[in-house]
Structure formats: C-alpha cells, structure tokens
Amino acid sequence: MAVTDEAIEKIKGMIVSGALRPGDRLPKESELAADLGLSRNSLREAVRALSLIRILDVRQGDGTYVTSLDPQLLLEAMSFVVDFHRDDTVLEFLAVRRILEPAATAMAALRISEQQLDALTSQLDKLGDAPSVEDLVACDLEFHRGIVQSSGNSVLCSLLDGLSGPTTRARIWRGLTQEDAVVRTLREHRAILAALRDRDAEAARSWATVHIASVEQWLRSTL
C-alpha cells in the first residue's frame, strides 16, 4: 500500500504543478512508470484509485485522462461516502448545513436573478398550501439547491448537495410526526424568498438559519 500511496502522490504532484492539466492525456504506462521511478503495477493501482475519486478518467482503448477537476465532479466521492452515515450522525450533518447554507443564502441575495426568483416563487405556488410530506421534502431540496446555485460558488453548492442526503429522512419523519411542520416549512420558505427579493443578505441568512435550526431542534428532542 505504501508503494501505491507513493505513486498516487507522484501523479498528484504532476497535476498540482501543472505538468498535467485538466483534459490532458497521461503518457503511456511504460513511459510514465519509468519517468516517475515506479513499477507498472503500482502505477496501475494508483490510476485505479484516482479514477475512483474522479481525478482520472480511464477510457478503454483510448488512454487515461485527467478529468475536468470540476468541484461537482470531485465531490461526488464525498457524496458516496456520506451515504454510509449512521443515524446518530444526522445531527452533525445538520450542524454543518446550519453553518454553510445560511452563508450561501446570504451570498445568493446579492447575485440571484429576477428570473431565478420567479422560478422559486412558481415552485412554491405549485406546491400549494397542503402538500404531502414527500412532495414538500422534494420541493425543499430543489428550493435550497436553486438558492445555493445562485450563490455563485460551485464548491459550496457541491458540498451542500452532498450533505443534504443524510438529512432527508429526518425531514420526512419530522413532517409525519410534528403537527405544524408542513405549515412552518412553507412559511419559512416564503420568508427566505421575500428576503432574497429584497436583496437583504442578513435577513436571508437569518431565515435560512431558523429554517435549518428548527429541524435540528426537533431532531434533538426526539433522540
């Protein structure tokens, strides 16, 4: 494993230094192994590992390429790992969302377009005043994803997208068991949207914090 780790570090060094750039094709295996002072087996294992985390793209019959290194692509690996969370760590995921999502919402208040605001409004209008819990949670995910995308920070967007999965079940359970959860969620969505329309970053941040904290508070009381 130590030899494979060394091979990974050497390929990583080539990418970080700019010797290999996004979209570049790696030299032939025999040439690269010789240049890096590696065995072909250790190089092969390193390439396999880096392809799993979307650093490299192995194309059968064509060669191995550096991927686009786009944040969303790279953070897919994190999303995969997050899916293995235990139920007792859901509060920790919510705590991270409570740190990041209000900041992204505040950023969006200064960047979101009128067209995007109209799309969010239409989304809420279509949902109606008494949606099913499943429809509400699906809308909640899309609503917040749309806002975070408007923050203009692709890394933040990808991080939050990956973190939203573990909290989905908690939100559904809350909607089924807490009497005013649906009405409260709709009200908070409207408040966030109103703050965004007013271009009030601090109000948007505050309402996003309240929105996530309410789920977190409910979950703490049920555990």
Automatic annotation (TrEMBL):
Domain of life: Bacteria
Pfam families: FCD, GntR
Keywords: DNA-binding, Transcription, Transcription regulation
Residue span(s) of domain HTH gntR-type: 1-69
Transcription regulation keyword on record: yes
Protein name: FadR/GntR family transcriptional regulator
Organism: Streptomyces venetus
